[in-house]
Specification:
single chain, 320 residues, alpha/beta, 2-enoyl-CoA Hydratase, Chain A, domain 1, four-stranded mixed beta sheet, 12% strand, disordered N terminus
Amino acid sequence: MTSLGQHMLSPPASIFWMTGLCGVLAFHCVHLARGCGECRALHSVHLVMLVGMVYMFAAMAFQVTAVPSGLWLGLYVTVNRPNVLNALNTPTWADLRTAFEDARDDAAIRGVILTGAGDKAFIAGADIGELAQATAFEAEKFSRFGQEVLDLIENLGKPVIAAVNGFALGGGCETAMACTIRITVESAKFGQPEVKLGLVPGGGGTQRLPRLVGKGRALQLILSGEMISAQEAYRIGLVNEVVPAADLVTRAEAILNKIAANAPIAVKLALEAANKGMETSQSEGLLLEASYFGLCASTEDKKEGTSAFLEKRAPQFHGR
């Protein structure tokens, strides 16, 4: 797979060290080209060591990676803070926003798989170290920023599959709920434990959870702060499927492959109709659906889809 990019506002210390290392790297490259045989050997050793250090600091500087798949027209986005169970802090939220803005704006990307680094956590929640120091104003600002990122994910216009590979608690559960579809491993745990910290969910948990599982079940989870298993999450409708860990990404890819084979405009408008319909009355939602049905009927994809059906061949959609 070719790296699309690793988005983050890099910490100042990492920038400093990376800049310094690159300067030393350039020095050794020049002397490698000009030096004698023995000097070249010495500079070669130093060069290999420095390249390794550059990669090490690059890995430290980035907390979310976005990598295009070679198997389907999609993108893998990975929250990459396994040492803190992929907890969400302000730079990580910013990095997620950048990755999903890029996915939204790239017509070649037909869907996203979102997961967490390592095998313990999808996202274990907010970074408590950061949150503990926040004032009331800063906490509200943090909440609104996270909500905006999750609104972006929910309304991307393209399917986003949460491949939940471990703990999905607090902001992690909220992030999964903002995704179009949730696939989880058998060992995953879900919950909204904010009340145990003297807080309420701040990333949409009080709004999305009742819409997914019903008000009664949602309030039981939110007010008790208890964790539930993947099997219980499936039973109440919080997740779509529970699969063995070895099959998680494969199953997510299979679902997105099926979606990617369909007309992109129709997929986008179907997502939008369902999302907006949840926020309005059924009669208003039906009017919106009819409007989008008419919009789809004016596209080249509709002509291709109906023609392919009548001609008994596979359609070739181009998003026009």
